[in-house]
Write a structure and sequence with these properties.
alpha+beta; 16-stranded antiparallel beta barrel; 4 helices; 17% helix
């Protein structure tokens, strides 16, 4: 660079010599003026040269940065083998570049505090991990072969009883042509809508007392499904209600069938509006969904189980539900009815005694968004044992026969974001809360999962329950 400036200075000097008188004839003042003039032109040339050099330097830096990024991308592609991709999209995922293999990982954590006040009993309060789940889902070979595996840690029932880890969902799902699919394994039977909605998308802290008495829960079997834009239907052959993680050997043989259909009504209705029970994510639309289901099971001897407020070996049940989701509000209601028979009921004096029993439950609940992140809600639950018809001599109806229960729950949800939700609610029981019994009529409205306790006094009422819960999803 210095040599270039020197050459330019000589050239300028030559040009000046050609245009001006001979140097030996110039005065000192004239020579001084020429030197200052040449110095100014040299400084200007040096400044232009430096600017050009800096511009080229920046260009080299940009080119180097681009090359580094491309090299990093090539390195990642090489590490991924045949185009493996990973990231987060409603769950962490790892997938093949051709889309034929996918594993998504999700988790749910619910930390709960509750305070229960029941007549003639000491108050119960404290914290617990209500749910802790790790979920694996995706597809293998091609997107038509789906799977889901959910690992859950349960709560210990006492200080000397350790918690354990078990499988909740474990199934294989094969998509067929024209919207049909086959699912086999362990999963929720298609029956009550409240149960089918994920525990992470409930309106209140937990499900209702009616759901506790009438739900089929998770069971093992095979299901055939069909879905279109506006309606869908599922039918499942299974091992009966709440048959989770049981083995064939040593278990009563039970045949169970559940079938459920749902239909969307209205131009603004979409399935995504009814994935949960909260009044969010409707995009200003209003939609309506109508659903209904049938359930039947039949067990062999010693296959009596508690279902629909009865200890029965055979049962027939149906439910109908309606859900409306609007811009900032939601409403859901359902009715469920069950008939049960215990044809294996025996006493010393009545070897052929039997019982038939009818019972029903009703739930109405709704939520309203006061603000974008604050939702108020209310729920009313009612359970009624309509009839208990006992046959056989010297057999008296158990004390639990005729037990009804109604509960009002009010509360609020605060959505920190789409992954974190805080819920608080308060429930009041207008009747005696019962927890089954030793006879065929078994009004079971309580469960450790909801926080309600059985009343000690058969005439007690006024039990109340305060719950607060923080939920995190990823």
């Amino acid at each position: 660079m210095k040599s270039a400036i020197g050459v330019l200075a000589i050239c300028l000097g030559c040009n000046a010599g050609l245009a001006a008188p001979a140097i030996d004839t110039m005065s000192d003042q004239e020579l001084r003026a020429m030197v200052f003039e040449l110095k100014g032109e040299v400084d200007a040339l040096r400044s232009e040269q430096d600017t050009t050099w800096l511009t080229e330097q920046r260009a080299e830096q940009v080119r180097g940065l681009v090359l580094d990024v491309l090299a990093d991308a090539d390195t990642r592609a090489a590490l991924q083998g045949s185009g493996m991709t990973s990231g987060y999209d409603k769950g962490f995922f790892l997938a093949s570049g051709d889309g034929n293999w996918l594993m998504k990982i999700n988790s749910q954590i619910q930390v709960r505090w509750h305070f229960n006040d029941a007549s003639d009993q000491a108050d119960v309060h404290g914290f617990e991990i209500r749910r802790a789940k790790l979920k694996f889902s995706g597809h293998i070979i091609d997107p038509s072969w789906g799977y889901k595996l959910t690992v859950v840690s349960n709560r210990q029932s006492g200080l000397d009883t350790p918690a354990n880890v078990f499988i909740e969902d474990a199934y294989i799902n094969k998509k067929l042509d024209n919207g049909m699919y086959v699912r086999m394994g362990q999963f929720k039977a298609p029956f009550l809508r409240e149960e089918l909605v994920s525990s992470s998308r409930q309106l209140a802290v937990d499900r209702s007392i009616v759901n506790n008495a009438f739900t089929w829960g998770r069971t093992q079997g095979i299901m055939l499904g069909y879905e279109e834009d506006a309606w869908k239907i599922n039918a499942m052959y299974n091992n009966g209600p709440n048959d989770q993680n049981t083995q064939i050997a040593g278990s009563p043989s039970t045949n169970g069938i559940t079938a459920r259909a749902e239909v969307l009504l209205g131009d603004g209705s979409e399935w995504s509006m009814f994935k949960g029970l909260n009044a969010r994510n409707t995009n200003g639309q209003t939609g309506f969904m109508l659903g209904g289901a049938l359930g039947w099971f039949n067990s062999n001897f010693n296959g009596v189980q508690e279902y629909g407020n009865g200890d029965v070996a055979r049962s027939l049940a149906f439910t109908i539900d309606g859900s409306i989701a609007g811009d900032g509000w939601t409403l859901m209601s359902y009715l469920v009815w069950a008939w049960g028979k215990d044809r294996y009921l025996e006493t010393v004096n009545s070897p052929n005694a039997e019982t038939d029993q009818d019972s029903l439950g009703v739930v109405v609940q709704g939520g309203y968004l006061m603000q974008e992140d604050l939702e108020l809600f209310a729920r009313y639950s009612y359970g009624d044992i309509e009839d208990a018809d006992f046959t056989g001599t010297d057999f008296g109806a158990p004390a639990a026969a005729g037990d009804n229960l109604s509960v009002l729950t009010i509360g609020a949800n605060y959505f920190v974001n789409s992954n974190i939700k805080f819920t608080m609610d308060w429930g009041y029981a207008f009747d005696t809360v019962t927890d089954g019994g030793t006879g065929p009529t078994s009004a079971d409205y309580t469960t450790s999962g909801t926080g309600w306790r059985p009343d000690n006094n058969g005439d007690a009422d006024g039990q109340w329950l305060l719950r607060a819960q923080m939920q995190l999803l990823f």
